[in-house]
Design a protein that fits this description.
The protein is of the alpha+beta class and 146 residues long. The chain has one domain. Helix content is 27%, strand content 34%. The chain has three helices and ten strands; from the N terminus they run E-E-H-E-E-E-E-E-H-E-E-E-H. Strands 3-4-5-6-7 form a five-stranded antiparallel β-sheet, covered by helices on one side. Helix 1 packs across helix 2. The N and C termini lie far apart (46 Å).
Length: 146
C-alpha cells in the first residue's frame, strides 16, 4: 500500500478522491429519485448504507450501498442482485446507482421477465439478472417447486 492509496473497509479504494461515502451515495440517490416520483421513493441511511425504496401497491424494490464497495437491488419477489466493487470511481459508482435504481423501478412497474429462477430486467441500456438467495432456491428445490 502506498501513501496515495488508503485502505478502506472492503479493500483498497480506487483512490481517496474517487471513494464514495454512504452520505455521498445518499445525495446521489436523492437526485435520482425525482425521475421516479410515481413510485413513492423513500431515501435514507441505515446501518452505514444509503438506500432508496421504490414502491407501487404490493411491489417494492430497495437499492442500497455503503458507497464504493458494493451495490445491491432487492425486489418484492425475493430476487436480488449485488455487485461487489471496491475500486469503482465516482463516475462508475454514479452509473451503478443509476442502473440499479432503474432496475428496481422496472421491477416495481412489472417490466421484469421471469426466466426460470431468475428475474431479468432490462433498464438503463443494461440487462440485469436477479436471483433468489441460495437458501430460498434450495427450499424450493427440496419441495419440488420453484
Amino acid at each position: 500500500m502506498t501513501r496515495d492509496r488508503k485502505f478502506e473497509w472492503g479493500g483498497l479504494s480506487a483512490g481517496r478522491e474517487d471513494f464514495v461515502t454512504a452520505a455521498e451515495a445518499l445525495t446521489a440517490l436523492e437526485e435520482l429519485v425525482a425521475e421516479y416520483a410515481d413510485l413513492s421513493p423513500e431515501t435514507g441511511l441505515s446501518e452505514g448504507e444509503a438506500f432508496v425504496r421504490l414502491s407501487a401497491g404490493e411491489r417494492w424494490a430497495i437499492v442500497s450501498t455503503p458507497g464504493t464497495r458494493w451495490f445491491s437491488v432487492r425486489v418484492h419477489s425475493g430476487h436480488r442482485a449485488r455487485l461487489d466493487d471496491a475500486t469503482s470511481t465516482r463516475a462508475e459508482a454514479a452509473m451503478l446507482l443509476r442502473t440499479y435504481v432503474a432496475v428496481g423501478a422496472a421491477s416495481v412497474r412489472g417490466e421484469a421477465v421471469i426466466d426460470g429462477d431468475r428475474l431479468t430486467v432490462t433498464a438503463a441500456g443494461r440487462r440485469v439478472s436477479l436471483v433468489r438467495p441460495i437458501a430460498d432456491r434450495l427450499r424450493g428445490w427440496v419441495r419440488g417447486g420453484r
